[in-house]
Amino acid sequence: MRRLIYELTESVRIAAAQIRANKLRSALTALGVIIGIVAVTLMGTAIKGIDAGVDRSMSGFGDDILYVSKWPWSNVDDWWNYRNRKPIRHTYAAQVNEWVATTPGSALRLAVPTAERMTTIIRGEYRLNNIYTLGTTADYSRITRSDLNEGRFFTDFEGQAGSNVCVIGFDVADALFPNESPLGKTIRIRDQNFQVIGVAAKQGSFLGLWSWDSMVAMPLTTFRRYYRVGEGGEIRVQVDNTRMAEAKEELQGLMRRLRGLGPEQRDDFNINEQGTIREQLDPIKNGIAMAGLFITGLALFVGAIGIMNITYVSVKERTKEIGTRKALGARRRTILLQFLVEAVAICFVGGVAGLALAAGLTSLVGIVAPSFPLVFSTSLVVIGLTVSVLTGIFSGFAPAWAASKLDPVVALRYE
């Protein structure tokens, strides 16, 4: 064991000396490995970033919410079938809450009615178009996980009275009230004055997903006074997230009963959940993974061929040295280990350079496009270094094996 450690240490020393003596050749040889490691690292960074971005965007709405809607969140082929469905009535929320109150052990917690529209908001000379406007009840503050940066959410009394009050998102506040607090001030929605009573904390958005940053919420009673609520009605139901499947089944059965559907009739509503959005992003992640793996595989293959070639050249250049070492008693294992370590060392250095380059590119993207989340994790570093070492082993083994089998007499006569 001690001899093996000594041989390994000596091989590392010789490999380091060879890399220092042939810096340019080593750098060019490692170029393929560098490109491959950059590709695999950026691929992993992008995929992890997409997951983190979706989680961040959806976190404010809570991952324990089921959405009872007329339309599914996924693409549909039979559009007319969904178009002809009856609207989702807001009274269902009260009936669901009544079910929860009278059903011990229910997986459902709280139902809140909502309605939504895209609208224009004006404050003086400032104008914001296509702002997501939400009408809901005071209970919405109990199911959302978004905090308020300042102010408060509207109360039951304000909701029942149909008061013209609203809570605005962080970006809306920043655009309409630059360098001042919007609390107590007035904005115009549908040509009506609304008093701002709260501002949501900055949440961030990703890939156009919902975000409190560009939203305005008002009491549902007020919303119904200024908007026609038919197609946009929805019920959001907070459930026990440890019993999500059970809760979805319970809510489906309850909704079928509330809608008066017979056993032979299909559902005329959809129960959506955040997992649907994540599933829709899978093709994007798969595309990034396929492109990254193709570039990685191609670059590592070219890099491995280059390292194998340069290791064969190194064996040829040092044939007499191999003969001398064998004549002095060096074992085949020692020669094999020496050239194998040299190949692995070049790949390892290439892997480190690739990781450093990928980290730099990740930082650059973070500066240029701060809204796109990128996650450069420790696991990617481990994967990158492991891939580079394995590339060195596979590419260097054949020439190292050939060097170890050289006859010392023939090697000493080599010209």
Automatic annotation (TrEMBL):
Residues 294-408 form the ABC3 transporter permease C-terminal domain. It is an enzyme of class 3 (hydrolase). It is a multi-pass membrane protein. GO terms for cellular component: plasma membrane. InterPro entries: ABC3_permease_C, MacB_PCD, Macrolide_Exporter_MacB. One of its GO terms (molecular function) is ATP binding. Its main location: membrane. Keywords: ATP-binding, Cell membrane, Hydrolase, Membrane, Nucleotide-binding, Transmembrane, Transmembrane helix. Residues 26-252 form the MacB-like periplasmic core domain. The chain crosses the membrane at residues 27-47, 288-315, 335-368, 374-397. Belongs to the ABC-4 integral membrane protein family. This is Macrolide export ATP-binding/permease protein MacB. The lineage of its organism: Bacteria, Pseudomonadati, Verrucomicrobiota, Opitutia, Opitutales.
